[in-house]
């Protein structure tokens, strides 16, 4: 069992930093397990034992990079909060870097754990927005899964398979549809 903040955490932090630094210096194509290990100050067997292969390591790094840095902004009303969050989510995930992180997170994810973690990040952000609306006493707040199914899922689908037409207007349209849907449910 790994201790939080113990050797395992230090190894993960140094290996992740090595991946980020080497990718910035040499490009992704130049990354190898021995190169990352040397930069991180660990043996290649440490990386193979913990991550299995380079793709799984890149997936782990991508998941960490997809973790939100901040809470969603509070604009004082559910509609405004959710629209602003959806626009930011679409912007970050559809950026060149965001698409690369999504690709890496999914490619090195044989058991689906990384995809689940990325979904949990989005769900936690949606929960914050919905909880704020509840705390303000707003009514007709949709369930988290309604927002996930009608805002997050279409954004991710479009990013992965049909990236044309991604815009803030599209994000706002999805939010309006999700909020209108809750009135019909």
UniProtKB/TrEMBL annotation:
**Has the keyword Ribonucleoprotein been applied to this entry?**
no
Organism domain of life:
Bacteria
- Which GO MF term does the entry hold, naming one? transcription cis-regulatory region binding
Q: Pfam families from the entry? A: TetR_C_11, TetR_N
Return the protein name: TetR family transcriptional regulator
Identify the keywords attached in UniProt to this record, alphabetized: DNA-binding, Transcription, Transcription regulation
Q: Which sequence positions fall in the DNA-binding region?
A: 32-51
Question: Which species is this UniProt entry from?
Answer: Streptomyces alboflavus
Keyword Transcription attributed: yes
Instruction: Give start and end of each HTH tetR-type domain.
Output: 9-69
Q: Which SUPFAM superfamilies match?
A: Homeodomain-like (SSF46689), Tetracyclin repressor-like, C-terminal domain (SSF48498)
